[in-house]
Amino acid sequence: MADTRAPTFAFPNKKRSTSTDDDDRAVAKKSTFSWTVDPATALANARHEFGEHGGVNMSIEASATFTVMEPETMRRMFAGELGPDRDFFIYSRHFNPTVLNLGRQMAALEGTEAAYCTASGMSAISSVLLQLCSSGGHVVASRSLYGGTHSLFMHFLPRACNITTTFVDIKDSEMVKNAMVQGKTKVLYVESMSNPTLAVANIPELSSLARDKGVTLVVDNTFAPMVLSPARLGADVVIHSISKFISGGADIIAGAVCGPAKLVNSMMDMHQGALMLLGPTMNPKVAFELSERIPHLGLRMKEHCKRALVFATRLKKLGMKVVYPGLEDHPDHELLKSIANEDYGYGGLMCIDMETEERANRLMNQLQNYAQFGFMAVSLGYYETLMSCSGSSTSSEMSEEEKALAGISPGLVRMSIGYIGTLEHKWAQLEKAITRLKNN
Predict the structure, then answer these.
(1) Does 248 lie in the same domain as 355?
(2) Where does the source fall among the domains of life (predicted)?
(3) Dihedral, CA atoms, 154, 160, 162, 168, nearest 10 degrees?
(4) Which of 16, 52, 406, 420 has the highest CB neighbour number within 10 Å of its CB?
(5) Reported confidence tier of residue 13, pLDDT bands at 50, 70, 90
């Protein structure tokens, strides 16, 4: 994998001889990464891959399997003596050059030594947990998580893997500290901004608590790419559902694991690696598509966040119960200001609490079918606004008691704010729906 230290430009070489000295394009035999506070600058400084014939875009390596020049080379590859750090590839479930390039971009984005990309966000989460935990292992996790992640911890891992989870209020440092059992707890798992309540994790504090107990802090940063950089704040591993803001088109399912080179390499180990052996392989054509979208992620995130702040502020003035960490009355507003990257805002999601599911459904019906403001659909990060009543959709896996503990109101409408049309045009549509709702 290419060096992320400086803007180096190089055309790809032919498969190199087994006698060539190691270069520094490994998934990480060398700890050569550097971090700049601005993730956009880090992305710009990452090595650019040109195409096979000099195209400004890299070529897609669509092969499932790879040839070698000498018979002895294959034995050495399977023995672990030769690998992708020297352009030796075996099989695309193991490593693929196009997917490695996307991983390099994700590592630059998050300021980690290495990254590798997967077929979905859930496959990234489950693979990390299975790599870090063995049978009998223990996880401490936030009470407020995406419903699928909650079900993984609550139901699947205990049944299939004998891995148990204690759910905690991550705002209560004593509860978090007491839940972690030194020597048994392997992972502290949180979302940088919780789905759907938009609570902000105090990552520096959680990192300190985890480090004191010898626990790995894993942070899902799906809701806040560019806005937050968890690794810079002390997280050990950063997870993404790339399907959301990073993709931006609501047309791709993908995930990523960003973290230390040692972890990423262990996950790709041919005998013990969760990514290698469980097989959540990313298609290289998908990796190519995504690698072309990441360069303008910063521009998109700034507009998502700008509009979310404007709409949240104006809705609050109209008397709506708005949840958005960019508002000064949000309990985590000052925390977010203190840990966020400059100039990217406060996130592209906001919530309107309508208190009951019936009122939430009326609001969404007005917004979609009367004002054409957005679409009733799950997911986020699309250029159109997407909205859903979280309690009966993306958090429906949780019991009523669990939703109450997580702070999920029955009428909480989660809105991923899009950027299509002008801001004032979309505000007029939103205001029109709110006015009609109030008058009916």
Answers:
(1) no
(2) Eukaryota
(3) -10
(4) 406
(5) very low
Beta bridge partners of 386: 375, 416
Q: Which helix or strand (DSSP H or E) is residue 240 part of?
A: strand 237-241
Q: Please tell me the distance from the alpha carbon of residue 30 to that of residue 187, in angstroms, as a whole number.
A: 25
Choose among 158, 212, 207: nearest CA to 182: 212
- The DSSP letter of residue 295 is G
**C-alpha distances out from residue 172 to 108, 161, 404, Å:** 32, 28, 17
Task: Tell me the one-letter amino acid at 211.
Answer: R
User: Across the chain, which distance is largest between two alpha carbons, in Å?
Assistant: 78
Q: Please state the pTM of the whole predicted model.
A: 0.90
**What residue has token string 């909205």?**
387
Cis peptide before 196 (omega within 30 of 0): yes
Encoded tokens for 132 = 């870090």
- Residues 230, 161, single domain; the answer is yes
Q: How many degrees, rounded to 5, is the angle at CA 298 between CA 312 and CA 305? A: 0
Q: In what order do the strands lie in the sheet with 349-353?
A: 322-323, 349-353, 412-416, 385-389, 374-376
Give residue-wise pLDDT tens across range 206-258: 999 999 999 999 999 999 999 999 999 999 999 999 999 999 999 999 999 99
255 and 242 Cβ atoms separated by less than 8 Å: yes
Domain shared by 203 and 320, yes or no:
no
Residue 93 placed within a domain: yes
Q: Are 141 and 189 in contact (CB under 8 A)?
A: yes
How many domains is the chain built from? 2
